[in-house]
Amino acid sequence: xxxFFETITxxxxxxxxxxxxxxxxxxxxxxxxxLGLAVIFGLLNIxxxxxxxxxxxxxxxxxxxLAWAGIGYWGALVLAPLIVGATGVVIxxxxxxxxxxxxxxxxxxxxxxIGLMIEGYFRNEFGSSGLPxxxxxxxxxxxxxxxxxxxxxxxWVVVFALATCxxxxxxIEKTRLGAYLRAATENAPLVQAxxxxxxxxxxxxxxxxxGLAALAGVLAAPIYSVNPQMGTNLIIVVFAVVVIGGxxxxxxxxITGFSLGVIEGLTxxxxxxxxxxxxxxxxxxxxxxxxxxxxxxx
Amino acid sequence: MTxxxxxxxxxxxxxxxIGSAIAPLSRARAQGNTIRIGVLTDMAGTYRxxxxxxxxxxxxxxxxxxxxxxxxxxEVIEADHQNRPDVGSNLARQWYDxxxxxxxxxPTSSVGLAVNQIAKEKNKAYINVGSATADxxxxxxxxNTIHWAYDTYMLAKSTGGAMVRAGGDSWFFITADYAFGxxxxxxxxxxxxxxxxxxxxxxxxxxxxxxxxxAFLLQAAATRPKVIGLANAGGDxxxxxxxxxxxxxxxxxxxLAALLLFVNDVQGIGLQTAQGLVCTESFYWNMxxxxxxxxxxxxxxxxxNYPNMIHAxxxxxxxxxxxxxxxxxxxxxxxxxxxxxxxxxxxxxEDDLFGRATIRADGRRLIPSYLFEVKAPAESxxxxxxxxxxxxTPAEEAFRPVAExxxxxxxx
Lengths: 298, 412
Prior knowledge:
The structure holds 2 protein chains of 2 kinds. Chain A is mainly alpha-helical. Chain A has one domain (23-103, 143-289). Chain A has helices spanning 2-9, 13-44, 51-69, 73-94, 104-126, 152-174, 176-186, 188-193, 198-220, 230-245, 250-270, 278-289; strands spanning 142-144, 149-151. Chain A has a two-stranded antiparallel ribbon with strand order 1-2. Chain A is globular, with a radius of gyration of 20 Å. The termini of chain A are far apart. By secondary structure, chain B is α/β, with parallel strands linked by helices. Chain B has 16 helices and 14 strands. In chain B, the strands form 4 sheets. Chain B has a 5-stranded parallel β-sheet with strand order 2-1-3-4-5, sandwiched between helices. In chain B, strands 7-6-8-9 form a 4-stranded parallel β-sheet, sandwiched between helices. At the A-B interface, helix 2, helix 5, helix 10 and helix 11 of A face helix 1, strand 7, helix 7, helix 8 and helix 9 of B.
């Protein structure tokens, strides 16, 4: 089997498996970020371009909690999404809520502008070269899998991201709250007529979507450089993932996130220079063949 | 549509940025006896801490020290080139047309090379401190340009040469896929081969836009090199170092060579992860009493960022420029950038940070390069105390010999 792989690809099998696994790990980040975007788009019809900055804020808040309050990684995993989610609630109430009657484009421009301002503020306060954040002691170390050296922390990221995606999916598909959410997506005035406070539900949904971005940011803090640009690099890719999966499709964004991570990982082996564009090539093909995305409804 | 919109917004933003940078100049134009230094730098991007506001602060420090008793006023202006050659070129053109006498700093090799052309075309003075590419004094050298503090050849010779001598004779490069990364890889590979070492391969990583380098690090480790050379800078280098530690690459006996690392990057990575790395700079703030005293003065202007060799270079370059202007007189200095640069080359520069240093005909300023090792957390005695000196390459050996540079100014 291993020889077979080596013969057809010309790449040593251990290296290939290693890259597949790494792709899966990166896919976990794509999945978590695109999940938040999908949730927000599904209910609010807002293309949340602030998402990258909110991911970055998650990582920075984790750093602040440690440096200023002595709260470590596990505390940050709970607190940072709540804190950043709360800022999301404020942004939604004060600004985004005024745009629901207008075209998508207005929401996009507003959130893009807010994202640039947040990034600029953090750059001004903390500089561009980043801040150190260490892997928690419980998750440091690595397993020797034979074909590669697998850091425990990366394994944790995959498991945690999968669990988060599953939990979000369950909440939306299987609970009463989720049923209200889905109903409000279809026909908000009708749901409101039944006595459900739809504006509050929308606000909290935005907060939750932002919280997911911040959670991904906390997960990323120990392995990526914590700097103000960290979200910008990732967010464009994540938008492509959402477009490929189908705007607003929750399961679609999760599956697409993981599989595009793997495809990108393989590109890094065969043609490294193209690894930054492969996702956009796929996006173009999907848009031509299935404009609503792989899992979206036309 | 989203991407197109984003472009449009960015283009508008760029226009505004240029407009606001130019506006203050026209007000100041009326004063004829004023010498203007324009610091063109990265104020808001990935190289902000390595250059940016601290470059401006260091230049202002030089002006303050030079004093007001020379019969002319000095004005320092600043602008953000956003690491884009088109923005940098526009700003440089407008500045020179509006009476800026010297453009200083200009990090990011692609922008540094673009401004190089404009200074020559407009016959103005240009001192590049922030760009790395050795082509500024090689194939693309110009009579109007001086390259002040470091270049890719000097980094390669110091870091690369030392690692080969220490037994690191097989290399794999992780290279940022643009002009700077290619130049750094090229110069390093030449040293590795010249010293009898082997280059096992390289991988070109997309720039910007790569955040996860673990895939490339594993490819590198699979070829079992003794050294992985990081031909990148800023956040890319930080990510590589962090992830190499995470995947246990350094624990398996493979050494990392950060081919361009600044003291500010070490602050961002943290000593715990960065300890043991070797890197090359031509200045370190904690070298002696003079550098420490100067650093205290600059840090007062930018409290959260300590100066590196680029910042020290901006100070030293501005001081030498002002002394030269004072010696030749303002009208003569304003009349021809070429004469001004020739006068700067004719006399050695002298200051507290670099001592005496000569400038070659091809524009290369000759200073010693220092090979540093990053301290372990226990060895560090306080904030920003990061380096211990391993080795010094004297000024006359640190840079590429004139004959190998292929510079048209000195060809015989």
